[in-house]
Amino acid sequence: GEQVEQRPPHLSVREGDSAFITCTYTDPNSYYFFWYKQEPGASLQLLMKVFSSTEINEGQGFTVLLNKKDKRLSLNLTAAHPGDSAAYFCAVDNAGAKLTFGGGTRLTVRP
Amino acid sequence: EAAVTQSPRSKVAVTGGKVTLSCHQTNNHDYMYWYRQDTGHGLRLIHYSYVADSTEKGDIPDGYKASRPSQENFSLILELASLSQTAVYFCASSDWTGGGETLYFGSGTRLTVL
Fold this sequence. Notes:
The complex is a heterodimer of chains A (about 110) and B (about 110). Chain A contains no helices and eleven strands. In chain A, the strands form two sheets. In chain A, strands 2, 4, 5, 9, 10 and 11 form a six-stranded mixed sheet that branches. In chain A, strands 1-3-8-7-6 form a five-stranded antiparallel sheet, with no helix packed on it. In chain A, a hairpin with a 4-residue loop joins β7 and β8. The relative contact order of chain A is 0.35. Chain B is mostly beta strands and about 110 residues long. Chain B is globular, with a radius of gyration of 13 Å. In chain B, about 40% of the residues are buried. In chain B, strands 2, 4, 5, 6, 9, 10 and 11 form a seven-stranded mixed sheet that branches. In chain B, strands 1-3-8-7 form a four-stranded antiparallel sheet, with no helix packed on it. The chains are: A mainly beta (about 110), B mainly beta (about 110). Chains A and B meet through β4, β5 and β9 of A and β4 and β5 of B.
C-alpha cells in the first residue's frame, strides 16, 4: 500500500524565516494531496488540498508544491510567525476513500 | 459548520478492560473513520465505514472493533485493552464521492491504559 515519509520530524525557525516541509510517497497513481495543521492540544484542520494537475498552489502565507515525477509534496511557509507553530501533516489519497498520513512535522517559530 | 463530536475527551483504562470510544457527526456524511495518533507520530487508520451497519478494516485493525449503528454514530471498541493501545484517537467524517474530499476531525480522545 501507499507509504508516505515526511521530513523533518522537528523544525525550529525564527520569526520571518521560511519553513520547508517535504513528503515523499510511493504510489504513482496518487491523485489528491492534503496538508493538515494541528495546533497544540487541538484536532487537525485542513490547510490545503491539491490535485495532481496543479504543481504550484498558493495559500495565505504558504505555498504547496507537487512534483509528480519525483513523487514529492512540499509545504513552504514563507515569513513564518509564532502562530504558525503547530504540527503539520501531509496526506495522500489515491481515490480509495482512505488517506495515508505522513509522520508529521512539529514546527516551532521563535520570536 | 461541520461538526464531529467525540466522547470521552480522555479516559484511563486498566489492562484487560473494555473501552468504548464514541463519535457523533452532524455533517450528513456517509464515511466515518477512526485513526490513532501516537506521540510524535502521524495518524494510522484503524477502521472506517461508508454505510450504517457496516464497517471496514483499516491499516491497523488488530485489537479493535468498530460499530456503525447509524449514519451519525461510529464507535471504536477495545474488548481487552492493552498498554500498547495508549494513544490519542481521532474520529473523522467525509462525504467521499471519488477522491479529494476533506476529512473533518473530532477533537480527539486521549486514552491511557495502565
